[in-house]
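Field guide to reading this record: the first block holds the primary sequence, the second block holds the structure written as discrete tokens, and the final block holds curator observations. Each block starts with its own label. This record concerns SigE family RNA polymerase sigma factor, catalogued under organism Kribbella soli.

BLOCK 1 — SEQUENCE
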Amino acid sequence: MEFEEYVSARGQELVRLGFTVSGDYQRAEDLAQIALMQAFRSWRKVRNADDPHHYVRRILVNEYLSMTRRRSFTEAPTADLDPQRTVPDHATHVANSDDLWRALATLSARERVVLVLRYYQDLDDQTIADVLGIKPSSVRATASRALASLRRRPAYSGAGESNHVDERLS
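BLOCK 2 — STRUCTURE
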């Protein structure tokens, strides 16, 4: 597979992965471009790998984690969370999705990446461990801590006491 073919086939998927880990579309585009740039530099090596997409996905995730370690990186919800807000009926799904993004934004970078790779990319623990360069037991422990943290958060939608974040991730 040539580099141009790979970009055509998987470019948008990389942007989606970047968005789900970062929560920011511009940062997602940057992450995808950085991953593709690094892959292009050593495309012969990437192309000959067992799974080129796994290789590029790992570049993207490592770049995101590296980005979060820099002093200049900050990620915070742009608006104050108001548990008393009301949501029109037709926007319940959008509101629940917004609640989930806000909750994910409170997790550490590694916790967020583990949950995104597990629940949005549908990867198993071994594959996630390979992407992050850690042991599968660390993946399970990180996911467990992240889910526990999300479960402790109050539900921000107007739908009562149920925690919509927990319902979507479990």
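BLOCK 3 — OBSERVATIONS
Residues 156-166 have pLDDT under 50 and may be disordered.
Residues 125 and 140 are 7 Å apart (CA to CA).
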